[in-house]
Amino acid sequence: MQQPVRIAPSILASDFAKLGDEVRAVTDAGADYIHIDVMDGHFVPNITIGPDVIAALRDYSDKPFDTHLMISPVDSYLPAFAKAGADIITVQAEAGPHLHRSLQNVRDLGKKAGVALNPATPVESIEAVIGEVDLVLVMTVNPGFGGQSFIESQLEKIRKVRALIDAEDRTIDLEVDGGINFDTAPRAVAAGADVLVAGTATFKGGSNAYAGNIARLRDGSTIQ
Length: 224
Ligand code: DX5
Ligand code: ZN
Prior knowledge:
alpha/beta
């Protein structure tokens, strides 16, 4: 069942020179999750942050750290992210040959397991592992950078993932990530999403604007 809309600011769009303050500011502004984009320069053409930075940020928020790993290989790094304070650890379905094992590894570490689908990856690729996940992340841009445009064709995929989740007898988050703004947020929610990652749309306008941005993303996206 679709849950109330939650907002997960992506700190990729924040001011990295004051990352701790930014995490605290979006927490105070009403963020539900803190979305942390980890990129390795191999799976995606960009490099961001690793476990040590996440550990340093842990004290700046009591919200779940929603850790999106765009790295390959992934398995050998999972313990480090768990230790750093990640609560949800999401791996890309395309990151390695043994997705089921990666998800089990996350759960064995006592963390919530998420699986992310690139725009070209079909929903069918996760049907066999839906029993192992707590969150499905539909990428609505190609991963690697913030500030890209929402890929409209992914709305149909969100609908299919919603049907897949609703056939399960437990709660699974349906998160969307990429190009989420005041226009695309309600449409993603209407298609079935219940967690909205928003980088650019959250951090626009400076810290005084964060609370308004988060509220507008959430309130504009009421579940029908
Ligand atoms: C892209 C990342 C996203 C990104 C979203 O690879 O996974 O989380 O930061 O940025 P916006 O909201 O600016 O599209
Ligand atoms: Zn992300």
